[in-house]
Amino acid sequence: MAEQTLTNLTREEQRFEPPADLAEHANVKEEAYARANADRAAFWAEAAERLDWGREWDQVLDWSNPPFAKWFVGGTLNASVNCVDRHVAAGNGGRVALHWVGEPDADTRSITYAQLKAEVSRAANALTALGVRKGDRVAIYMPMIPEAVVAMLACARLGAPHTVVFGGFSADALASRIIDCGARVVITADGGYRRGAPSALKPAVDEAVEKTGEMVRNVVVVRRTGQDVAWYPTEEGGRDVWWHDVVDGASADHTPEMHDSEHPLYVMYTSGTTGKPKGILHTTGGYLVGTSFTHWEVFDLKPQTDVYWCTADVGWVTGHSYMVYGPLANGATQVMYEGTPEKGRWWKIVQDYRVTILYTAPTAIRTFMKQGREIPDGFDLSSLRLLGSVGEPINPAAYVWYHEVIGGSRCPIVDTWWQTETGQIMISHLPGVTAGKPGSAMKALPGVVVDVVDDDARPVAQGNSGYLVLREPWPAMLRTLWGDDERFKETYWSRWEGLYFAGDGAKLDEDGDLWLLGRVDDVMNVSGHRLSTAEIESALVSHPAVAEAAVVGAADPTTGQAVCAFVILRDRATPAEGGVGGADLGEELRRHVAKEIGPIAKPRQVMVVPELPKTRSGKILRRLLKDVAEHREVGDVTTLADSTVMDLIKSASPSSKEE
Ligand code: WTA
Q1: 137-141 and 108-112 strand pairing
Q2: Protein residue with its CA nearest to atom 6 in ligand 1
Q3: Mean pLDDT across the stretch 263-280?
Q4: Which of 314, 504, 520 maximizes ligand 1 atoms within 8 Å of its Cβ, making it the mutation to test the pocket?
């Protein structure tokens, strides 16, 4: 692929060296790369020794039947014991596991590992009493409350795979997931708090369960908001039971069974290129090794002193790997927050709980940039020592802002690339080793083998772009798609023999460092030149008037595709004050992109919009913007966090007004 246009993702030349003190005491040092290269199996076996096993494995990796991997073959363990009981047994029962912060101000709870163990045991006993057996599937549809974590760990304890469905999904989405994995029990709440008001969850469960016939035996409901809910009592042949009725009175003693290393731990649904969501299957041993080790490695976790906060919702993979399983297996003390990023609230939480490690997404960082630095500047953020980013490429402007304003120019930033499918972080800085380069996720972690290849699977030379692939299996890799081995092979392993195709484009820079360029379906082809949406978005947000940008390639009769940009302006950058005249703003931004990247990248259209269509995890749904840019009826909006956004965009967009 000849892609001169991809060579300028940024002209940012700054480097941020690891702080000397962190480097000296880092959990993982530079030698790890060589050690992992020399013997990858031994490297992961050593990582596995950090966990408690019922029975030691016979074989680290069985890759005799690719792409179906088995890790720690013959070993047995219990994920819940590793996340909870063993910390109590080691004398750390008094350590806080979760500092939970509710959305209503005064609503807080701090839960120690000993308390968590008791609660998980009660929930496991309660689920057993409801007839949940090893192998049964349980759907969890909950707000960000401690019971969500307890429910997951109770399922893991019993060997009942959970499928957590994000609370912002519709009843239909919930129903299709329940049906696909055949869940027998649903755990939910009456509602949760969103933007200051109770927001019901139970009605969606009722509606979903109606669609699933006889499949769901019980619905367990946590009382969170106290709002009225329809109720179908079991005494009358219904299915509803209150969490407090079945869990609170249950015994706090529960003897866990050790499960096979390859026993299914959970199914997480994620969208694919077709309409049907894919059920990503993660199993127990490898997943727990991969997540706990990388959490300790990448965040340099010191469990006695750190207060870690991952802002992801439990309904997404980041909530699974880096809020529940990784950190708890490591005995971390963490913050869990119920609400959304309102002005100032996050920084008050960092200040109040003396948070040391913050892991969040670029979209949140750009939202804070838009609100202005005086908000975080009003809080004491001096406890922070390390910052993380995940979910999309972090543009250099956001990276530098995060580093300076939130990190006080002293905290390393780890830009972590991974996927629902990979289960664990694959590419990242090592905070005590790697000098930060704004915008680059740097290198594969020790024990992970990535490559950037061209259409014929040939590795590209430094300075070039191509497709990101994984060459070797890794412990937390997905094992298959639930009930669909064929689709698993077809989706990830069929493009090139023996390579996992991640679906992302990447560039290898002159130093051999990786720059993620977004999904390859987000890569445009304009007049035969390949352009990355991420590259143009990065250029747009480097303009002082722009807070956020999304770029799509829209069909164009002469150039194949044309670049269409949707931008949100900064709060104070009104056309008058920002120095860019209203009608001229589009032209100004087009010129700016041309200047930053080259005339080829100049957007055909720049549309100023009040919002961008995003999923709750912050991913921009470009396909909807493409519909607008191509004057089509807007497609399926069910995964949007706010389904009214498309109406706002359409009314702001001149192209659709012309119709
Ligand atoms: C993107 C979220 C650039 C990428 C953990 C990947 C990133 C998809 C990064 C997976 C990053 C995630 N830099 N892009 N640091 N992290 N992505 O499954 O396109 O929700 O394929 O997992 O997000 O999204 P998923």
Answers
A1: unpaired
A2: 419
A3: 80
A4: 504
Ligand 1 pocket mutation pick from 516, 535, 538 by most atoms within 8 angstroms of CB: 516
Ligand 1 neighbours (beta carbon < 6 A): 270, 317-318, 390-393, 415-420, 441, 502-504, 516, 518-519, 617
Measured in whole angstroms, the distance separating CA 4 from the mean position of its chain's CA atoms is: 31
Contact 163, 218 (CB under 8 A): no
More confident residue, 326 or 171: 326
Going from the Cα of 398 to the center of ligand 1, the distance in angstroms, rounded, reads 17
Phi, psi of 136 (to 5 degrees): -65, 145
**Cα 457 to ligand 1 centroid, rounded to whole Å:** 22
In sign, the C-alpha dihedral spanning 502, 503, 508, 514 is: negative
Tens of pLDDT, residue by residue over 421-467, are 999 999 999 999 999 999 999 999 999 999 999 999 999 999 999 99
Roughly how many angstroms between the first and final C-alpha of the chain, as a whole number? 37
| The pair of three-digit structure tokens given for residue 218, joined into one six-digit string | 């019980």
Q: Write out the DSSP string of 161-193.
A: -EEE--TTS-HHHHHHHHHHHTEEEEEEESEEE
Half-sphere exposure of 591 (CA within 13 A, CB side): 6
Query: Residue of the nearest CA to atom 7 in ligand 1?
Result: 392
pLDDT above 60 (res 269)? yes
Q: How far is CA 432 from CA 22, 30, 298, in A?
A: 6, 8, 9
- pLDDT per residue over 200-216, tens digit each? 999 999 999 999 999 99
What is the 38 CA–ligand 1 centroid distance (Å)? Answer: 28
170 vs 227, residue with greater confidence: 227
Please state the atom number of ligand 1 nearest to the C-alpha of residue 617. Answer: 20
Angle at 269 between CA 266 and CA 272, to 5 degrees: 140
pTM listed for this prediction:
0.84
Q: Atom 13 of ligand 1 has which residue's CA nearest to it? A: 393
The residues with which 139 forms a beta bridge, in sequence order, are 163, 186
Mean per-residue pLDDT for 278-301?
Answer: 97
Domains and CATH numbers, the chain: 20-78+264-518 (3.40.50.12780), 79-257 (3.40.50.12780), 527-657 (3.30.300.30)
Q: Measuring from atom 15 of ligand 1, which residue has the nearest CA?
A: 417
Q: For ligand 1, atom 12, name the residue with the nearest CA.
A: 391
Centroid of ligand 1 to alpha carbon of 49 (angstroms): 29
Quick check: 561 and 35 in contact, CB under 8 A?
A: no
**Which of 267, 419, 520, 521 maximizes ligand 1 atoms within 8 Å of its Cβ, making it the mutation to test the pocket?**
419
Of 53, 38, 95, whose CA–CA distance to 292 is shortest? Answer: 53
Beta pairing class for 386-390 and 357-360: parallel
Listed residue (349, 368, 341, 307) closest to 101, CA to CA: 349
Q: Measured between alpha carbons, how far is 587 from 604 in angstroms, rounded to an integer?
A: 10
Q: Are 90 and 51 in contact (CB under 8 A)?
A: no
Q: What letter represents residue 547's amino acid?
A: A
Q: How far, in Å, CA of 640 to CA of 624, rounded?
A: 10
Q: What is the mean pLDDT of residues 617-646?
A: 79
Q: Which atom of ligand 1 is nearest to the CA of 427?
A: 15
Q: For ligand 1, atom 24, name the residue with the nearest CA.
A: 419
